[in-house]
Amino acid sequence: MTSLPERPSPKRLGLVIDLDICVGCHACAVNCKEWNAGGVSAPLTDLAPYGVEPDGVWFNRVHTFEVGEGAEGRTVHFPRSCLHCAEPACVTVCPTGASFKRAEDGIVLVDEDLCIGCKLCSWACPYGAREFDEDVGVMKKCTLCVDRIYNETFAPEERVPACVATCPASARHFGDLGDPESDVSKLVAERQGYDLMPEMGYAPTNKYLPPRPRQRSAGCTGAAAALPPAQPAPQGLLGWLDRLLSR
Amino acid sequence: MHPALSVIIFSTTSGAGYGLLALLGILTPFDALSQDRIFGFAALALALAAITIGLLSSLFHLGHRERAWRALSQWRSSWLSREGVAAVATYLPAGLFGILWVFYGSISPIAGVLAALGAIVTVCCTAMIYRSLKPVPRWHNGWVLPNYLLAALMTGALWLAAVLQFFAPRPAVTLLALVATAATALVKIGYWRFIDGETATSTTASATGLTNSGPVRLFEAPHTSENYLLKEMGFQIARKHAAKLRRIALTLGFGLSFLLSLVALLTSGGLAAAAALLAAPLGMVGIFVERWLFFAEARHAVTLYYGQAAV
Ligand code: SF4
Ligand code: SF4
Ligand code: SF4
């Protein structure tokens, strides 16, 4: 049923991604691919993986942006995956009932046996979270690792999404964003986590934490956080030697 | 947005078919057209063939054609599903109208009006599929629905005027084709002016939420070659190519079919027939080009993550 659940549970499972901490290593993207290539959405087809123009289905992609100008500029790594929106038009546009949002925890999934591969849901997602699998002819997307988080054969601490489990910097957090007392909700409140493109009206569940302000001093050492600029080149004999040696 | 041929052929061809069907269903019972059985057969066959070819073409867009019937199930929420239901439902009154007319020589106003209603609803659903997509601001606006409806009326009327030339030419129908062509062109020009002057709905800053640290620009994409997102949603057309195609649609499509309809209106006999017969395919060319541009010029919000500054 592609209408949204009439009585959704207050539980809203999702991710919190810390843009201050992410180092852009792509480990989450790779482990997502690795897990899901063998999970419920398998295969995640690769086309020409060793060719000149490799292409394939991924549920998580890490972009890198430059923010600000000159000395104030900084690099922000930006992982992008399904935000498991509360108002997901990707679900309501689906003509077949393949796309659905679970009432019990808000996870947005595709039933691949119903999907006709019309691609309309990927047009309806502003965040580019849905990728078509050309080989299988159906739409695929992040499952919030539904086959891990409820997996009773796993030790409780391993029942988190593959991308969260693997992040070496702990920039990704998983939890119930519908519960204001959960660790993730507290983190969002403390760090002023925000929604991507709120103007689209999709009410994403996943939140992003902004990069912290640049540090001006090296904490308790009292030293400046950055080295002063290098001295200008010396004049006279020393300058002549400098120029000679740096040829 | 990638201009997929199967989808463009669908909406132009079936649009013309539905326009023709609606005009036949409404005008014939009021004796505004010929009630000749052979005319009925020719005109309805043309309409239903165009509709069917269009619908079959749209199936080529699917990853699983054999499951297409499932698309009829979610009419409560999905415009695509509603379009499918309306398209299938329209065949019933249209078929009945045709059988009664061609085989029994009786014109059923109820079947005719129901077929016309079905045709109009189907075209509205097609337009609403695009109109409802917020991530594509150039589709999510009030110009799209009138654009699709008028295009169907224009091409339907042009074909009707052309077919009538072989039976009993009706100046009123040629005049309708003329007016509909002018109206479609005007609405299209209005749409183009609107998208050219539109202010951004979303920017790279709002897409990343990095809104208060200065300008945001893409430094490194996540992958080195094009993926599904870029192939499907990242299609870009150079401004100068778009301008040229707009001129082609306006002159070759709308302008010429308008002039030829005028010739058909003011003359009679062979010249009028030739003009009307040429006007219809040229009108189709115009709609095909504008529909191709409708996709090619549309920008999707996901491109904000890949270097597009605003959509
Ligand atoms: S991010 Fe896209 S695919 Fe995921 S729920 Fe939101 S609209 Fe749907
Ligand atoms: S591609 Fe599949 S999941 Fe997406 S809208 Fe079409 S049928 Fe639904
Ligand atoms: S939750 Fe699972 S499927 Fe979704 S991005 Fe993370 S690893 Fe991939």
**What's the name of the CATH homologous superfamily of chain B?**
Formate dehydrogenase/DMSO reductase domain
Which stretches of chain A of 5+ consecutive residues score pLDDT under 50? Answer: none
Q: Strand count, sense and closure of the main sheet of chain A?
A: 3 strands, mixed
- N- and C-termini, Cα separation of chain A: 73 Å
| Beta-strand content bin of chain B | under 5%
What is the count of distinct domains of chain B?
1
Outline of chain A: elongated
* Assembly context of the chains: heterodimer
Backbone shape of chain B: globular
Report the CATH C-level class of chain B.
Mainly Alpha
Explain this structure.
The complex is a heterodimer of chains A (247) and B (311). Chain A is α+β, with helices and mostly antiparallel strands and 247 residues long. Chain A has helices at residues 27-36, 89-92, 120-124, 146-149, 162-166, 183-191, 236-245, and strands at 13-18, 46-47, 55-56, 61-67, 74-80, 99-101, 108-110, 130-133, 138-141, 172-176, 207-209. Chain A has a single domain, classed as Alpha-Beta Plaits, CATH 3.30.70. Helices cover 19% and strands 19% of the residues of chain A. The longest helix of chain A is centred in the first third of the chain and has 10 residues, at 27-36. The model of chain A has no long low-confidence stretch (mean pLDDT 93). With 311 residues, chain B is mainly alpha-helical. Chain B has a single domain, classed as Formate dehydrogenase/DMSO reductase fold (Up-down Bundle), CATH 1.20.1630. In chain B, helix 4 (109-131) runs antiparallel to helix 5 (144-164). The interface between A and B is large, with 72 and 58 residues. Strand 4 (61-67) of chain A pairs antiparallel with strand 1 of chain B, so a sheet runs across the interface. The structure holds iron/sulfur cluster (SF4) (3 copies).
